[in-house]
Amino acid sequence: MLITRTFSLTNFLIGSSALCFQIFVLYPWHEKLEEEFVELKKEHARLLEETHERHRGELRGIREQLELANERRRTGKFW
């Protein structure tokens, strides 16, 4: 009977300490990580939009240069 009681008490102590660790250490850490992930998503979306805008500008410039080259080819003025 003493062995089973000791075994039960040991299991209870291990389970209680594991639960306390989850509540007081892992959960606050999880909340902090969640906040950082939200900020990271916002930063990623902002950088992605900036990159798209820069690419749009580059494509707009290329399109203008092509239109100018086509216009020069039609009029015969290359220089």
Question: What does it look like?
Answer:
- The model has no long low-confidence stretch (mean pLDDT 92).
- This protein is mostly helical.
Number of DSSP E strands: 0
Radius of gyration: 33 Å
- Give the overall form: rod-shaped
Distance between the termini: 103 Å
Oligomer: single chain
Question: Which features would summarize this protein structure in a list?
Answer:
rod-shaped, mainly alpha, 79 residues, 94% helix, 1 helix
Describe the structure concisely for a colleague.
The chain is 94% helix and 0% strand. With 79 residues, it is mainly alpha-helical. The model has no long low-confidence stretch (mean pLDDT 92).
Write the layout of secondary structure elements.
Layout: H1 2-75
